[in-house]
Design brief:
The complex is a heterodimer. Helices cover 12% and strands 32% of the residues of chain A. By secondary structure, chain A is mainly beta. Chain A has one domain. The longest helix of chain A has 7 residues. By secondary structure, chain B is an alpha+beta fold. Chain B has a domain of 74 residues: Glutaredoxin (3-Layer(aba) Sandwich), CATH 3.40.30.10. Classes of the chains: A mainly beta, B alpha+beta. Strand 1 of chain A pairs antiparallel with strand 2 of chain B.
Chain lengths: 57, 132
C-alpha cells in the first residue's frame, strides 16, 4: 500500500494500490486480494468494513 | 448482482475462517472476508478507530476503474440498510451507461425518472420532475 497510509480517501478519488489477505468461503481457503486483481476483474466492488468477527449487527 | 462484495475487519484471516464456520447465519456466505490487522486499509478509508483497534461500519462502492463513488460510515451500534446500498449501486450502474443523466434522490430502480441537466433546468428541477 506504499506511502498512502495517512491520507484518507474521498469520494471521487481512485483507490491506490493495496493488498490484504482474506478467507474465501467459496474455496474454503485463504487468498490475497489486491487492487490490481480487483481492477483486472473489471467488476464493481462493494467494500464492507465491520468492527469484528463474532459480533452482532 | 454484478458486483464483488468484500468484507473487511481487523481480525486475522484465521478468525474470519473460524467465524464463518461456526456461525450458522454465515453458512451461505460467498464473498471473501478480508483481514486488515494492521488497520492500514481501514485507515486509508477513514474507518479505523485507533482507540479500539476496530473498524467502523464503512461501506464503499468502487467503480471498475477503481474510483470511489459512494461512502457511508455508521457507528458501531447501527447496522446498514442493504436496500439503500443496492439503490446506490443500481444508480451507479445506470449512470455509468448514461453518463449525461443524474439520479434524483427518489430514484429507486431502472425505469424511474432521471434528469439530464440543461441550463434551462436550473431553478426548474421541480417542474422537470413533474413532467413525467
Amino acid at each position: 500500500m506504499n506511502e498512502t497510509c495517512c491520507r484518507e480517501l474521498k469520494v471521487g478519488q481512485v483507490v491506490p494500490e493495496f493488498k490484504i489477505e482474506a478467507y474465501d468461503p467459496l474455496k474454503g481457503d485463504f487468498r490475497e486480494i489486491s487492487s490490481e486483481s480487483l481492477k483486472a476483474s473489471g467488476k464493481w466492488i462493494i467494500l464492507f468494513f465491520f468492527p469484528a468477527a463474532f459480533t452482532f449487527v | 448482482m454484478g458486483a464483488e462484495v468484500i468484507t473487511v475487519s481487523t481480525d486475522t484471516k484465521y478468525v474470519q475462517l473460524a467465524w464463518q464456520r461456526e456461525e450458522k447465519m454465515l453458512k451461505d456466505v460467498k464473498y471473501p472476508m478480508g483481514s486488515d490487522p494492521s488497520g492500514k486499509l481501514s485507515k486509508l478509508f477513514g474507518v479505523y478507530d485507533e482507540e479500539k483497534g476496530l473498524d467502523l461500519r464503512g461501506t464503499f462502492i468502487i467503480s471498475p476503474a477503481g474510483i470511489i463513488l459512494n461512502a457511508e460510515v455508521n457507528f458501531y451500534n447501527m447496522g446498514r440498510n442493504i436496500e439503500e446500498l443496492m439503490r446506490k449501486f443500481k444508480a451507479n450502474l445506470h449512470m455509468s451507461k448514461k453518463t449525461h443523466e443524474v439520479c434524483p434522490s427518489k430514484w429507486k430502480e431502472e425505469g424511474d425518472q432521471t434528469l439530464s441537466p440543461t441550463p434551462q433546468m436550473a431553478g426548474k428541477v421541480h417542474e422537470a420532475l413533474e413532467k413525467k
